[in-house]
Amino acid sequence: MNLLAVDTTGTALSVAVAAGQHVLSLHRVYRKPHDETLLPAVDLLLAKAGIKLEELDAIAAASGPGRFTGIRIGMAYAAVAARCVSIPALAVTRFEALAYGRPEKRLCVVLPGFRGEKYYQAFHGRKPQGPPVWSKSIPAMDIPILEGDPGAVQLLGPAARWLRLKRRPAFEPLYLKPAGYEVKKG
Questions:
Q1: Which residues contact 186 (CB under 8 A, 6 or more apart)?
Q2: CB burial class (10 A; 0-12, 13-18, 19+) of residue 133?
Q3: Which of 125, 127, 163, 179, CA to CA, is 20 to 30 A from 97?
């Protein structure tokens, strides 16, 4: 199975390619914005993997949570590139990416936000339990807490699972934090 995964939700650009059993990845902070660095990074990794876009089985994009514009850049790229070569575009949440393959039956996945904020979501097996939350702090819980900051490599496992199941998650962004103009005063 050949998969491409992109994560443009944070400061670093993260891209990964699984070509059969081989995985190549790039995770780097550039001076230029993601919309200028994503295409060259994808081209570089595909060339190193020795495959073309047309040889991919799917393209996965981190659907969030994260920066609003970053989510849009990665998801737009995945949707357009996948459509151009007639393959599925898969939206994978960063929660799902971090929780994937964990042995715990129940756990709470915690992702870093900005300015000390956190995003969290509880899981039972591979299924989310309740909605994801954006908060300044994590409440006390009676389940293990897994903190991390997944990148494109961690998107590959859930994306491959969706392909094997012949199902696709809804291709929609996961925006948790409202944009500044949406914050209600009072």
A1: none
A2: middle
A3: 179
**97-141, pLDDT tens digit by residue?**
999 999 999 999 999 988 889 999 999 988 999 999 999 899 898
Cα distance between residue 156 and residue 60, in whole Å: 7
What pTM was estimated for this model as a whole? 0.92
Distance from C-alpha of 37 to C-alpha of 42, rounded to nearest angstrom: 9
| Encoded amino acid at 63, one letter | S
- 61 has which bridge partners? 6, 91
Contact 90, 159 (CB under 8 A): yes
pLDDT in tens, 2-59: 999 999 999 999 999 999 999 999 999 999 999 999 999 999 999 999 999 999 999 9
